[in-house]
Write a structure and sequence with these properties.
By secondary structure, the chain is of the alpha/beta class. Helices cover 36% and strands 24% of the residues. Strands 1, 2, 3, 6, 7 and 8 form a six-stranded mixed sheet that branches.
Length: 190
């Protein structure tokens, strides 16, 4: 009886060790099809419009800008390449324009593919060509910004500046989680 018990125990343990080693329930979730115990909910989509609207509201609350002031929103620049932007930087600028117009702000509608700001010694300032354009168009304030791409997050900084002296009227920073959609917008710099 003891021999039968040992034989069954040996067979059972051998079967358990050999058979279950490749059994999908004991393999890491990344290496098998999804099942109930491995289900991971999809990452929630990021509401960029809401995030950007909140940032614009914060800026205007800080700045107390005259409603008749003319505002120019520039494409946001990639902090690693200040002379370039991406679909992400241009889309954020469009969201910012829309949110600013909801604040009854007069917006100068200049569609540019490149950011007009340069970084000099840690400060965001306008290029000389952009300064001339701002003076010719009688712009009162500028919305400029940068974004920095990290592994899981995109960090965004916005500044509301006077057009004449690049004086900061208001500033805010926020972050955007990197999802598949955000990664597509960040893919190619122009």
């Amino acid at each position: 009886m003891n021999k039968i018990f040992n034989a069954l125990l040996f067979t059972g343990l051998t079967g358990l060790l050999l058979g279950c080693g490749s059994y999908p329930a004991f393999v890491a979730c990344e290496n098998r099809t999804q099942s109930a115990e491995c289900y991971r909910p999809a990452i929630e989509p990021v509401d960029l419009i809401a995030i950007n609207t909140q940032a614009v509201n914060q800026l205007f609350a800080q700045a107390n800008l005259n409603k008749n002031a003319i505002l120019w929103v520039t494409p946001l620049a990639d902090i690693k390449q200040m002379e370039s932007s991406s679909a992400f930087g241009r889309l954020l600028a469009e969201h910012i324009q829309t949110a600013s117009s909801r604040q009854h702000q007069a917006i100068l509608a200049l569609t540019l593919t490149e950011p007009v700001n340069l970084q000099t010694e840690g400060a965001v300032v306008l290029s000389p060509a952009a300064q001339r354009l701002a003076q010719q168009a009688q712009i009162d304030a500028l919305m400029v910004g940068t974004y920095a791409v990290a592994q899981q997050t995109v960090y965004v900084n916005l500044q509301l500046l006077t057009a004449t002296h690049n004086r900061v009227l208001a500033a805010t920073s926020y972050n955007v989680p990197r999802t598949a959609d955000i990664n597509v917008l960040l893919e190619r710099s122009y």
